[in-house]
Each structure stands twice: as structure tokens, then as C-alpha cells.
Amino acid sequence: MKKKKVAKILAILLAAAMLATGCGNGGTESSSASEAVDSGSESAAVSEESGSEEAEGGEESTPADEGGEATAGEPIKDFKTWASVSGGDLSTLICQHSEGTDVGTVGANCLSPLLEFDNYGSLVPAVATEWGTEDEGLTWTFHLRDDIIYVDVNGNEIGKCTAQDWITSLEWILNFHKNAGLNTSMPVSTIAGAQEYYDYTKGLSEEEAKTMDNSKFLEMVGIEAPDDYTLIYHCLDKVAYFDTLATGSCLYPMPQGMIDKVGVDGVVGISNEDYWYSGPYRLTTFVPNNERVYTRNESYWDKDCTLFDTVTVKMIESGDRDDELWETGEVDHTELSTAKLTTIINDPSNQWYGNLAETRVAKFSYALLFNYFKLDKDGNPDENWNKAVANDAFRLSLYWGLDLSNIWYLTNQVNPMSLENLAYTSQNLGVFSDGKDYVNRVIELLDIPEGDGTKPRRYNQEKGEQYKQQAMEELGAEGVTFPIQIDYFIKAGDQTSLDSATIYKETFEALGTDYVNFNINTYVSSAADEVRKPQLQSFDVIGWGADFGDVSNFVNQGFYNDDAAIYSVERFNLDDVTDEHVIEQWEEYTRLGRLANAETGDKDKRLEAFAQAEAYLVNNAMVIPWNYNVKWQLTKVNDYSKMYAAYGNSDIVYKNWETSTVPYTTEDYERFKAEYEAGGK
Amino acid sequence: MAKYTVKRLLQSVLTVLIIVTVVFLLLRMLPTDYYFTEEELIKLSEEEKQDRLMAAGLTDPILVQLGRFYGELVRLDLGTSSRVQAGLEVTEIMTSRFAVSMKMGLISMGVSLVIGIAMGIIQTLHKDKFFDHLGTVYIIFVNAVPALVSYSLILVFGTRIFKLPSLYSTNDVARTSVLPIVCLSIGSIAYYALWTRRYMVDELNKDYIRLARIKGMSSKDIMVKHVLKNAFVPLIAYVPASLLLTIGGSLLVERFFSIPGMGPLLTDAIGRYDASVVQGCVIVYAGLGIIGVFLGDIMMMIFDPRIKLTGRGETR
Question: Nearest 5°: phi and psi at B215?
């Protein structure tokens, strides 16, 4: 009898174990999983047609009419968001010791910078109430507020913020043994004596460098604080855009009191408990690879702004998990994965169909960068490719003849045309005094027809064909053999890259397999060591985001014979090129670009000069503008209310965000966009 | 016993040293690209990259680096992280993560032992009947289906039906630990059930059990005093290693539920070229593995006095 009882209890336990571990429900779950896969593949099969249909529909084709209702939620008090830690979590909380956006976000929310952005990307006062230059950018003066205080993690006042904190910070950055060379590139290229001080500390022993006081630094470097609330920077040359650096990590403050508390060796690894806060939030919880919680700083200087009570950032192992977290209500916004977007867009009865919202254009501008001196696997020049890429008609045949819409469709199935990028520089980086965006001025200078938003503006099959014939004639006479081999490299085993490379292949070979042959090659672990250093690639597609608010950050990367021009040295390989025509073109571009750089007095003249240089670059197809990044999301945040920055790494500040406890609809978002554009400059 | 322990200890130290040296050299063979983020690779000049590698001590000749590493080891210093949590001592990083992994691991192990052994016993008692078949289906399911698929099913089931949170949170440990512990346990439950059943069935077929029955011993006494006890001996060798390896965490489960444990630390460190953290993790994992096997041997000896670890100058 007892035995039977025990057996029964054990049997119940067994059944409970199986139920708890999900075994009993496996059938139901797996069928729903396969449904998702089916719908994904179905949409992939019809992708070409539906892409153009949706694009043709334009605004009418958006799902607003189907399920969206006017949103009537309350503002969110405790905001929940996510961040991907696929490459690891924050390496430090010190924004001066990192160039990544993740750490930049900590700095931007926990410290007050000199200046910040409004939602249109214009600089507005923060710690600095007034700022300017009287000598066209040689000297910049910032007048600081005197009511900014530092608090500890519990919100207790522990110090005052003064100009000295910016001096301490810059010394830290430029001291090789303190900051390991991070964040130095902008200070050394703009501030007088910065490079010399960096080199000086590099020559010191670690102990000497870490124990020295500020006297040597102030003697060598162009920074001074005549009083506690005035800060002056002396630039190397006239730097018209220096104030835009004031939003970046390299010009953030670092209180000496904090350093004294944890010691020089403890700064980089400082905990959130020891951190000094002057920004809108305190980082009250920081568990690496798990979550961080920002709590409103009641002592924050901007009493009129809107802040959340708390912001919880959940760390997820990949960007795809946020879709699940949205479904379970654990986050307040999600960037939709391709699979999820496909599921929603193909099913008007889906509960989120009416809530699809397009993200704002990200600050990265992607461009195709040719390798002008390609080598083969034996290290010999690939004469066939090098002659082809030196030929204007060949490059122009790609420029006009490649239909990029299928490539854009990979990222944005609903509105692929929003990814269209016609210029080399990113949008909103330069604005003329009449409000015109610099990029629009560049496009005016390009020979590109107006578009109706349904098909790529630049794509012109006829023109592409003409240039192809011209190239075949000219290159044939030079002994080039056809089809020209285009070598493109992806990481071995990376399915996403392979999918995208396959579309690239189709796009290029649509020009004719008698003309080009697109080879998808693989590298094992390092693109730099295995591909770029041996100069094996025919081209790269690179997204560049500006570090400061000036077009030179894009344009200067291609200067010929300039070690600081990263594209020129590492991507174009111009230093190795011997073809006179190629050199002439890049020299002319460099000349135009340097003229623009020299124009420091008049902003409009400066932008116009840069536009001329960039138009020369693009019109000659020396690079080919490729795409922007625009995705789809489900969200309870009005992106148009957020601080917006076209440059830098510290623009995610949870301040003045308009939110709703009910997800916004597509209609809401269209209205936000229209209102934003109407209110713009 | 003492002689065996000392010999085994020395062997272990040598093994760990060889492992860690091989890992050290392998790591230095990786391209230094790993030290930089993608954006840094695009934007930094070659000189800037070299400066940063120099600051991390990675441009010194490899023998100098190896010597420095051994020197630190002798001082029991595992160094400082340069990328994973820059500026923090490796021991500090690992200690905070040990606790989380160990807590999760111990709970899941307790759950697995209780449920797994109970399942094995029930299957034995109902051999070739419904509960035995049901248990077998579970074991086959767990072993046949990839872990990630099982975890996904558990996640969907747990979040949609039971409204449990899908990510671990230190602010709500109890609720947020349920799904990870279920995921951590399903495999071990199947393991313990499988082997408990197998060893018990083996024992039940032995002559001494038949003799005990003939002598009139009750079924309960036979099961508890003989079958279960003898069947437990082979299982016991596995317990210490499992217990210690819980400290190492589970890469998959901890990543999946964002648990701040040891699991993802090693892969993060390799991915970011954080040499000190990689070496620290390898020493710990190798050490735990070796100690686990050693303790397993000792426990087997305690539970079954017939087993000798040394005899006539030979070790087991």
C-alpha cells in the first residue's frame, strides 16, 4: 500500500517535472515556430515584387489605416529599454576612456557636457551658457553655469562643477599612461600643444606620468581657466567647428575629487557607487551583462526638462531578442528584425500591424570605396582590376548602372527607398544659413534627376550601358580581359553576410556577365589581416559616422598623400597607385577639399566649397554613395522629440522624450514626422 | 591516501600550467584586430592602434609577455582586465560572477538530483509500463532536440503562459530565476534519470537480489538498502565535478537569459582580446575540472570501500 503511495507521489513529481520543463507542450510551440519560418520564406520569395509595390504605394501603402488608433497613453515614468551585448558590455564607465556609443551614453546621462543638442541637431547651452570665438576659431571661450553640482550615487551633494574639471579631463585623455591613447585623435588635431603633451607623456615612465601635477600640462597645452566658470581653448589653427566637439566624450568633464577618491589606477575601473554625477541621472544599478538602472538626479541643473523616474536598460545577447521582450511587455520599444517585420507586414490582422513606425535616418552614410591598387593572392598587382578601376567609364558604368533597390530591400522591406543615399557625407551634418542641408546642395551639383520616391534616382540603365560599352572599348584597347573579376570578401560561415553578398552578386552581374564577374570570397577571422593589408578586395562598403559637426570629417578622409586620411591610406591604397590619371583626379579632389578647409570665416562659403569638392568626387564615381540606415520599429517613444545628433557618440540622453504608455501607431508617427518637418529650419 | 593526494596535486598543477601556457600562446597568435571594435578598426590610424596595443603590453616580444605572466602567476596575481571591464582585477571580475553562476548551478543541481533520481526510480519500479515509457520519451526528447530549441520553447511557454520574465534581474531574483533554472535542469534531470534507471535495473538482475528475495527480504529493503545504494555509486563520481562546474556557469543559458555569471566571460574575453581575463578563466576552468575528477574518485572510494585508489604502487 505504502509502496503504491510512494510510487504515485513520484509519478506526480515526474509528470510535474516534464510539464515544467516544457516537454508536454513541445508540439504546440514547435508548430508556431515553423509558422514563423514559413511566412519568412514566403515573403523572401516574393520580395522583389512586393518591394516595388509597397514602394509605389508610398505613404498610402503604410498600414496606418488598417489597425492604428489615435494613441491616448500617459507619459511613461519608468522607461524600459535594451542594449545588445553581443560584443560584450560596457568596458568602463569613464567616457573619456572609450570611443563607443555605449560608454558615451553613460557619460551623456550621468555628466553634464558643455553643450548639448536639441531635437533638430542644433547645439544648445548646457553647462556653457555662452560660447564663441572672436578670431575665426583660433580661440574658443566657454562661460559656464555656476550652479552645477556633483552628487554621489545616492544623490548626496559631494562637489561643485568648475572649469577645472575640463582641464583635469583633457590632461587625463592626453596622458598616455592614464588613458592609453583613447579619445586623443580630435584633441591632438585641434588643440594647440596636445600632440606634444601626448608624446611627452609617452616618453615618461608609467609612475612619472601618473604622479605628475597639471603644471607641465598647462604650460604645454592650449587650455586655460581664468576663473572657475570660464574655459578657454586655444586651437592649432582656425577650427570653425570646435564647439561641436563640446558634445563629445573628449570634451567631457572629470572631477579631480573623483580621481582622488579612487586613485589614478582606480579611475578606469570605477564602479557606479564611486562615480560622481552631474547629469540628469545617477547610475544606481550596474550589473555587467545584465542590466543598468538610471535614476533621476534631483539635483540636475535643468529644472524645466522632462525626465523619467528611472530608465532600466536590459542587456540582451543579440539584437533580435528585443522583439520577444516587446511581446512580453518588458521593453518600451523594439527595432524589428527582418523576420518579425515580414510576419507583421504580411498579416494585416497582426496586432502590431497598425503600429509600425519608421526610425529616423541613422547618422551613418554608407559608400562603396574602391581599392585602386589591388593585389592578387601572390602579392602581385592585379593589373586587370587596377586598369579597370582607373578607368572613368568603368566606374561610371557601376555608378549609373547598379540598381541598388534589392540591396536596400534586405534592410527595409516596407520602404527600401528611404535608404537611398546620393551623397558621400551623411545628412544633417552641415546646414547652410538658409536652412538647406549640405547634402541637398551636393545633390544639386550632381547630374541626378528628381525622383518620385518609387525607384532609385541615380539608377539609369541606359547610361550605365553606354558607359559599359565605352569602358569595354577603352579597356579592351589597354589589354584588359573581360569579364572583369570583382573580388568581394565576407567572413566564412556568416550567413547574413552571405545573403547580402549574394544580392550584391546579382546586382553587379546584372550589368552583364560578359562585363563583370562577382566573386564571393571568404576570410577566416580578420578582414584587416587577411584582406585589407594584402589588398585583395576590389571594394569595401563602409558606413562612416561623423565624430564632430563638420563636413571635413567625411571629405578629408580621401585626401591624397595625407597620412591622416584613413580611407585614402587604408581603403583606396592611393599611396601605391602609379596611374597618372587616378593621381590627378585625387590631387584635384584634395585641392578642392583643402580650399574648403581653409575657409573658416563664412560658414556658407565653407559648406559651398566642400560641396564642390564632394560633387567632384561623386560625379567622377571615385566613390559610390550606397545607402543610409532606416529601420522599422514598434515603440512608445516619439523619436522626433529626442535629442538628435548627426555626429559624436553621446546623443542618447533620456531627456525631454515624449512617450506614451500605449504604443504609437503608424498614423501617430506620420504626424510626428510632418510636425517635425514643419517646425524645422 | 596522502601520497596519492600529493601526487595528484602536482600532476594537476603541471597540467594547469601546460594548458594555460598553450592558451597564452594561442591567444597571441590571434590577429590583434580582436583588440579593437569594428568602429575603431575603421577609424584608427595604424599609429593609434599601435599605441593602444603598446599601452596594453601587447607589442612586447612574446617571451617577455610570457615571463611577465609567469611572474604574476607566482605572485597569485591574475592581472587586470583591459577590455572586458577595463581597470578591474581579473579576480574581482570573476568573484562577482562566481557567486551568481554558483547559486544558479547549485539550485539547478539540487532540482536535477531530486527529480532525476526520482524519475529513474519510478521508471525502474514501472519498468516497461506507462511511466517508464513516458520517462524515456522525455530523455530522448531532451537529448535529441538542440538545447537552444528547448530553451526557446521553455522561454515562450514560460513567458506567455506563466507570465514569467524572460530575462534575469538582480532586482527580482526569485521570479527571474525560474526559467533559467528550468533550462539548466532539463539536461541533468534526463542524465540522472537515465543512469539511475540503468544502474538500478542492472542491480535488480543480479543474483544477490534474487537471493535476498528468496530469503524473504521485503521489496522496500531490497530497493533502498541494496539496489539504490549500489546504483548510486557510479553516479556519485559525477556529482563533485558537476558541483564545481556550476561555478563555471553555462555559456548558453547565461547568455540566453542575460545572467551576469561566469558563462559568457571567457567568450567575451576572447572576442575582445582581453588576455588577462582569458588566462584567468582558463586557469579556473582547468582547476575546477581537475579538482572535480579528483573529488569524484575520493567519493567513490568512500561510498564503495571495495574501490582502492592506490595499490601496489599504482594509482587509479
Answer: -75, -5
CB pair distance less than 8 Å for A287 and B157: no
Residue B182 sits at the chain A interface (C-beta within 8 Å): yes
Which residues, in sequence order, are bridge partners of residue A650?
A: none
**Would you call B33 and A22 a contact, using CB atoms and an 8 Å cutoff?**
no
Chain A to chain B Cβ contacts (< 8 Å):
197
DSSP A93: S
Are A195 and A166 a contacting pair, CB within 8 Å? no
Give backbone dihedrals phi and psi of A554, rounded to 5 degrees, phi first.
-90, -55
∠ Cα B24 B26 B27 (to 5°): 65
**pLDDT level of residue A209 (50, 70, 90 thresholds):** very high
* The predicted structure's pLDDT at residue A280: 97
What is the rounded CA–CA span in Å between residue A404 and residue A432? 30
B chain contacts of residue A5, beta-carbon cutoff 8 Å:
none
- Between chains, do A26 and B141 touch, taking CB under 8 Å as contact? yes
Lowest mean pLDDT among A37-51, A95-109, A449-463, B209-223: A37-51
Distance CA A638, CA B145 (A): 42
- Residue A423: band (very low, low, confident or very high) from pLDDT cuts 50, 70, 90: very high
Pick the range with the lowest mean pLDDT from A13-17, B209-213, B257-261. Answer: A13-17
Ramachandran assignment for B242, one of left (phi > 0), alpha (psi -120 to 50 degrees), beta (any other): alpha
Tell me the CATH class for A365-627.
Answer: alpha beta
Helices (H), A25-112: 26-45, 47-57, 64-67, 101-110
Q: Which three cell numbers, joined as nine digits, stand for A592?
A: 578642392
* CB-neighbour burial class of residue A4 (10 A; exposed 0-12, middle 13-18, buried 19+): exposed
Facing A181 at nearest CB: one of B46, B55, B268: B55
Q: Which of A311-320, B4-13, B195-204 has the lowest mean pLDDT?
A: B4-13
Q: What is the ipTM of this complex?
A: 0.80
Compute the nearest-CA separation of B116 from chain A (Å).
8
CA distance A595 to A606: 9
**3-state DSSP of A133-156:** CCCCCCEEEEEECCCCEEECCCCC
Asked whether residue B102 carries a pLDDT value surpassing 90, the answer given is no
Give the single-character DSSP code of A570. Answer: I
Q: Are A106 and A653 in contact (CB under 8 A)?
A: no
Q: Which of A154, A230, A138 is nearest to A191 (CA)?
A: A138
Looking at the domain that runs over A94-276, which CATH code has it been given? 3.90.76.10
pLDDT mean over A379-388: 96
Cβ B279 vs Cβ B225: under 8 Å: no
Domains present along chain B, CATH in parentheses:
95-265 (1.10.3720.10)
Residue B36 in contact with residue B49, Cβ under 8 Å? Answer: yes
Show the cell assigned to A132. 564663441
Put simply, whether A99 touches B (Cβ < 8 Å) is: yes
pLDDT averaged over chain A?
87
Residues 211 through 270 of chain A touching chain B, CB cutoff 8 Å:
265-270
- The Cα A242–Cα A245 span in angstroms is 5
Report yes or no: A68 and A662 within 8 Å, Cβ to Cβ.
no
Q: Peptide bond before B260: cis, by omega within 30 degrees of 0?
A: no
Domain ranges of chain A: 94-276, 365-627
CB-CB neighbors (< 8 A) of B52 in chain A: 180-182
B271 touches chain A (CB under 8 A): yes
For residues A560 and A619, give the distance between their C-alpha atoms in angstroms, rounded to a whole number. Answer: 18
- Residue whose cell numbers read 575603421: B42
Q: What is the pLDDT of residue A4?
A: 52
Provide the strand spans (E) within chain B: 310-311, 314-315
**Dist. CA B228–CA B27, nearest whole Å:** 47
Neighbours of B152 (CB within 10 A): 18
